[in-house]
Amino acid sequence: MQTHNLGYPRIGSNRELKKACEQYWSGNISLAELLSKGKSIYEQNWKLQQEAGIDLIPSNDFSYYDQILDMSLTVGAIPKRYNQVALKSNNEMDLYFAMARGYQKDGLDITAMEMTKWLDTNYHYIVPEFYKDQEFKLFSNKIVNEFAAAKQLGIKSKPVIIGPVSYLLLGKEKEEGFDKLDLVKRLLPVYIQILNELKAYGAEWVQFDEPFLALDINDKTREAYKYVYAEIRKQFPYLKILVATYFEGLKDNLALALSLPVNALHIDLVRCPEQLDEVLDAIPEQLILSLGIVDGRNIWKNDFEQSLAIVKKAIDKLGSDRILLAPSCSLLHSPCDLDLETNDQTLTPEIKEWLAFAKQKIDEVVVLKALSAESPDQNALAKLEYNKKAIANRSTSKLIHNGQIKQRVSSITTKDAQRENPFSIRKKAQQDILQLPLFPTTTIGSFPQTAEVRSWRARFKKGEISPAEYDSLLKKETEETIRWQEEIGIDVLVHGEFERNDMVEYFGEQLNGFSFTKNGWVQSYGSRCVKPPVIYGDVHRPAAMTVYWTAYAQSLTNSLVKGMLTGPVTILQWSFVRNDQPRSVTCNQIALAIRDEVTDLENAGIKIIQIDEPAIREGLPLRKADWQNYLQWAVNAFKISASGVKDETQIHTHMCYSEFNDIIQNIADMDADVITIECSRSQMELLDAFADFKYPNEIGPGVYDIHSPRVPSKEEMVRLLEKAKAVIPADQLWVNPDCGLKTRHWPETKSALIAMVAAAKELSANE
Ligand code: GLN
Ligand code: ZN
């Protein structure tokens, strides 16, 4: 039995790579300095895995920005618009970063390549661009260089390469008239060339990541898989090829995956433990099975006893020679090192005992191998005992379990997830109370979080300013924002969210059952990292969370102030979630906490309350067959949070970056009185899904893009609103920006909103 790893986090345990990249981009360090920082990170990662005792250590899992972009550069899939960058600069990294981030220098203004979510994670990759006359050629030697660098340290690494079929499927055809899968014949020779070089350097194992083998694919894709791996096998009869799948089970692709002429197949037994039996029943002789047994996507300590039962089952069937042990997927999605969490206040010692980050997960894999031996050594057995204690402590800890909350969740009824009356009746009740004009204007919640506002929070956290001082600074900022909104005539005001660091963290900090790390960073894209909260226990709201600021804002004005909350699905989606109960149960606990907040706001006299759910779509399972089940509980959780109020209280929700066509029925089922969506970049096209569906409730299609400082003209917004009005009845339409304004500056925010209000007035005057 051998251990291996599918990939190690590359940001560095103190985000060294982020810092070095950003310094390089701003011209503060040289390319040589950046490259040496990168090298020290991947060398450290290799040594750490070597010292831990991992048998097959990955290389080419490092990346300065993104591993899929690395592959595009490697195979020369470089869109033509970057030719000029290549001419201006003779270093490969400038071209690489231009593809990642765009290039505005030396009189050039070239857009970046598109970025999108990596399967169902919060990591974003750079989408390969394919053209009809697409050619591939070996352009970058990164894969071989890293293999050689590891070899110099005495490590015969296992290069990790995105497989040819998945690479093509991850890309996008940028013109019509061809199918990206047909490019496989042109692409494969470059892969062959890379393998030839690796072979010449002495590579023994190569890992091809083929996540699409665990997704819904068509027959053409299946044929492509057969073709690719048969060709590779033909050319390299002795190279050991491992095909890695993750995030889902093989399911209907099981026979295909098992028929590929490769040496080893990796399966994700954390996401889909039930596939083990099927695989063991059907696995052909000779094929080695890699058991993805340590969760690469979450932060919980592995349950050794449970894992050992799985390993044993596999050994009984295959013999230990045909087994590889590994994390379920690349550890890219785990924070680096739990040992760095030394602050007892943020992460108490008891909770810390339940966790494992990347470095600890590597150790877990190694210990599991030791424990799988016929007579494990004392050291391993001691670790098993220790592990059993931690697991037992977690399953019974008072910190986690709250009988009252469990009771409350299990007695949720259908009625709890339903407003008292249907929308048609609520609409009238709300109109009577709210007295809003046609085309009412509002914003999505946040106003600019200036450097000043952020510095108050930083100083407050360090104890440099008192709570009273912090409070009065925020009050002043809130009051100015309220006054300004009144002045320009916005109909539904917001308080501005100045007291919030982040839309999930702010709530997590006030809810029981949440914990935070100091250094638990995970790469989101490029140099951007996120630090998700840890939901470790039953969630419960000890006190109101937003009433203070919302009521304060409302006390300043006779206009309507909208309360602002983050929805249960989004809080769940952007956290590390406990694995000892279904996600749906955790989500319902959060939903009840938000529901209580909603009723508290109502009791405080707030008549409009927004519950943001930007992450509802990204929670969709990878396999379509699982969509309805997810949507059922996710939509229900939202409704639980929203349904504790009277008919006349108006509930808004907000979603961004979404396509709605395939889930429009579920969005309608959420039954929010008003939904605001991002729309301007698609020129209102996203609205078609609502129009075709005859969406009955009210909609605020975003009329300007808040991601850029550009100020749209009134005419432009009138044109967009006219377009909206052509497909949605006027009395259903709201006028608002695409999303929150917290990343914007005040000058452009003011000009844009003044123009937006004018656009709405013009439309209602024409009615
Ligand atoms: N209310 C939040 C804000 O305005 C919504 C953010 C979001 O949709 N991501 O910042
Ligand atoms: Zn948004």
From TrEMBL:
<dbReference type="InterPro" id="IPR002629">
    <property type="entry name" value="Met_Synth_C/arc"/>
</dbReference>
<feature type="binding site">
    <location>
        <position position="18"/>
    </location>
    <ligand>
        <name>5-methyltetrahydropteroyltri-L-glutamate</name>
    </ligand>
</feature>
<dbReference type="GO" id="GO:0008270">
    <property type="term" value="F:zinc ion binding"/>
</dbReference>
<feature type="binding site">
    <location>
        <position position="654"/>
    </location>
    <ligand>
        <name>Zn(2+) 1</name>
    </ligand>
</feature>
<dbReference type="Pfam" id="PF08267">
    <property type="entry name" value="Meth_synt_1"/>
</dbReference>
<keyword id="KW-0486">Methionine biosynthesis</keyword>
<comment type="function">
    <text>Catalyzes the transfer of a methyl group from 5-methyltetrahydrofolate to homocysteine resulting in methionine formation.</text>
</comment>
<feature type="binding site">
    <location>
        <begin position="444"/>
        <end position="446"/>
    </location>
    <ligand>
        <name>L-homocysteine</name>
    </ligand>
</feature>
<dbReference type="Pfam" id="PF01717">
    <property type="entry name" value="Meth_synt_2"/>
</dbReference>
<dbReference type="InterPro" id="IPR038071">
    <property type="entry name" value="UROD/MetE-like_sf"/>
</dbReference>
<feature type="binding site">
    <location>
        <position position="117"/>
    </location>
    <ligand>
        <name>5-methyltetrahydropteroyltri-L-glutamate</name>
    </ligand>
</feature>
<feature type="binding site">
    <location>
        <position position="678"/>
    </location>
    <ligand>
        <name>Zn(2+)</name>
    </ligand>
</feature>
<dbReference type="InterPro" id="IPR013215">
    <property type="entry name" value="Cbl-indep_Met_Synth_N"/>
</dbReference>
<feature type="binding site">
    <location>
        <position position="669"/>
    </location>
    <ligand>
        <name>Zn(2+) 1</name>
    </ligand>
</feature>
<feature type="binding site">
    <location>
        <position position="122"/>
    </location>
    <ligand>
        <name>5-methyltetrahydropteroyltri-L-glutamate</name>
    </ligand>
</feature>
<feature type="active site" description="Proton donor">
    <location>
        <position position="707"/>
    </location>
</feature>
<feature type="binding site">
    <location>
        <position position="618"/>
    </location>
    <ligand>
        <name>5-methyltetrahydropteroyltri-L-glutamate</name>
    </ligand>
</feature>
<feature type="binding site">
    <location>
        <position position="739"/>
    </location>
    <ligand>
        <name>Zn(2+)</name>
    </ligand>
</feature>
<keyword id="KW-0677">Repeat</keyword>
<dbReference type="GO" id="GO:0032259">
    <property type="term" value="P:methylation"/>
</dbReference>
<dbReference type="GO" id="GO:0071265">
    <property type="term" value="P:L-methionine biosynthetic process"/>
</dbReference>
<feature type="domain" description="Cobalamin-independent methionine synthase MetE C-terminal/archaeal">
    <location>
        <begin position="439"/>
        <end position="761"/>
    </location>
</feature>
<keyword id="KW-0862">Zinc</keyword>
<comment type="similarity">
    <text>Belongs to the vitamin-B12 independent methionine synthase family.</text>
</comment>
<feature type="binding site">
    <location>
        <begin position="15"/>
        <end position="18"/>
    </location>
    <ligand>
        <name>5-methyltetrahydropteroyltri-L-glutamate</name>
    </ligand>
</feature>
<feature type="binding site">
    <location>
        <position position="574"/>
    </location>
    <ligand>
        <name>5-methyltetrahydropteroyltri-L-glutamate</name>
    </ligand>
</feature>
<keyword id="KW-0808">Transferase</keyword>
<keyword id="KW-0479">Metal-binding</keyword>
<protein>
    <recommendedName>
        <fullName>5-methyltetrahydropteroyltriglutamate--homocysteine methyltransferase</fullName>
        <ecNumber>2.1.1.14</ecNumber>
    </recommendedName>
</protein>
<feature type="binding site">
    <location>
        <position position="497"/>
    </location>
    <ligand>
        <name>L-homocysteine</name>
    </ligand>
</feature>
<feature type="binding site">
    <location>
        <position position="612"/>
    </location>
    <ligand>
        <name>L-homocysteine</name>
    </ligand>
</feature>
<feature type="binding site">
    <location>
        <position position="612"/>
    </location>
    <ligand>
        <name>L-methionine</name>
    </ligand>
</feature>
<feature type="binding site">
    <location>
        <position position="656"/>
    </location>
    <ligand>
        <name>Zn(2+) 1</name>
    </ligand>
</feature>
<feature type="binding site">
    <location>
        <position position="654"/>
    </location>
    <ligand>
        <name>Zn(2+)</name>
    </ligand>
</feature>
<feature type="binding site">
    <location>
        <position position="497"/>
    </location>
    <ligand>
        <name>L-methionine</name>
    </ligand>
</feature>
<dbReference type="GO" id="GO:0003871">
    <property type="term" value="F:5-methyltetrahydropteroyltriglutamate-homocysteine S-methyltransferase activity"/>
</dbReference>
<dbReference type="InterPro" id="IPR006276">
    <property type="entry name" value="Cobalamin-indep_Met_synthase"/>
</dbReference>
<keyword id="KW-0489">Methyltransferase</keyword>
<feature type="binding site">
    <location>
        <position position="739"/>
    </location>
    <ligand>
        <name>Zn(2+) 1</name>
    </ligand>
</feature>
<comment type="pathway">
    <text>Amino-acid biosynthesis; L-methionine biosynthesis via de novo pathway; L-methionine from L-homocysteine (MetE route): step 1/1.</text>
</comment>
<feature type="binding site">
    <location>
        <position position="678"/>
    </location>
    <ligand>
        <name>Zn(2+) 1</name>
    </ligand>
</feature>
<feature type="binding site">
    <location>
        <position position="656"/>
    </location>
    <ligand>
        <name>Zn(2+)</name>
    </ligand>
</feature>
